[in-house]
Write a structure and sequence with these properties.
Blueprint lengths: L1 E4 L2 E9 L2 E6 L2 E5 L7 E2 L3 E4 L2 E4 L3 E2 L2 E2 H8 L5 E3 L1 H4 L3 E5 L6 E5 L8 E4 L1 E3 L2 E8 L2 E7 L6 E3 L9 E9 L3 E14 L2 E8 L3 H9 L4 E3 L8 E5 L4 E4 L1
Parallel strand pairs: 4-10, 16-21, 17-20
Antiparallel strand pairs: 1-2, 2-3, 2-12, 3-4, 5-10, 6-7, 8-9, 11-12, 11-22, 13-23, 14-15, 15-16, 15-19, 17-21, 18-19, 19-20, 22-23
Length: about 230
């Protein structure tokens, strides 16, 4: 269900099997700033007055295989190629979970951070143990990742299973890691990516991934057209 109004096009949003999803055209779509491309069961997405073509698959992953990996049925994945067209607000407060897409520029009060990008995927600057690092901001990631040393010095949160397009499923230990994003001190569940995927991040100049835990309980303005991220 969607609603068009002065605050843009709004969709019901929720956390589903650890992933941020929006209810669009009668089905769940994973919201994934970390994927350069969208894909789904239908060939077109209609958002904020635009009709945007969507491929049936990306890097061997389609809606059916994504549903199996997640553990619940989804209609597709909305990646950076779609989300970056708009000013987007992920409102993950418990009483009003919603996705807002604005065709025109939208302002959100809060702490503003600069974004860089690689292939349209956003990069945000964080500090870990006082050291600056560039990390991908990936709303499609249910946990965060850090490829640096010393994770095992932090509280262990156990082993989890995850997956990435082109890599498939893998397991990683996780730890509770203090991460400073702008002026905010956060505590994120962090794992380590398997070798090839970790190397790919390093080649892109990233030390890891900030996942959708950043959005929990808050409003996040993702304004890729203006290279800004706002934490409200």
């Amino acid at each position: 269900m969607s609603e068009q109004g002065g605050e843009g096009t709004r969709f019901a949003m929720s956390f589903f099997c650890g992933h941020m999803v929006a209810a669009i055209d009668g089905g769940r779509w994973v919201l994934d700033t970390g994927s350069p491309a969208s894909f789904g069961l239908q060939p077109m997405l209609r958002i904020a007055g635009e009709s945007i073509p969507v491929a049936p698959a990306y890097m061997g992953l389609d809606a059916d295989s994504l549903s199996r990996l997640i553990g619940g049925e989804v209609k597709g994945l909305m990646g950076a190629d779609v989300l970056n067209r708009f000013d987007v607000v992920f409102d993950a407060r418990p009483d009003c979970m919603q996705l807002q897409c604005h065709g025109a520029a939208f302002e959100l009060d809060g702490m503003a951070l600069s974004l860089d990008s690689v292939l349209g995927v956003p990069l945000v600057q964080v500090k870990i143990d006082g050291e600056p690092h560039s990390m991908f901001f990936d709303t499609g990631a249910s946990i965060s990742y850090f490829q640096g040393d010393g994770l095992d010095q932090h509280p262990s949160l156990g082993v989890v299973s995850d997956f990435y397009p082109g890599v498939g499923s893998f397991q990683t230990g996780t730890w509770r890691l203090p991460v400073q994003v702008g002026e905010q001190a956060l505590s994120l569940r962090v794992g380590q990516l398997p070798g090839l995927l970790g190397m790919t991040l390093a080649l892109a100049g990233a030390a890891g991934i900030v996942g959708n835990e950043l959005c929990v309980g808050r409003r996040v303005g993702y304004f890729a057209r203006r290279a800004r991220l706002v934490l409200a």
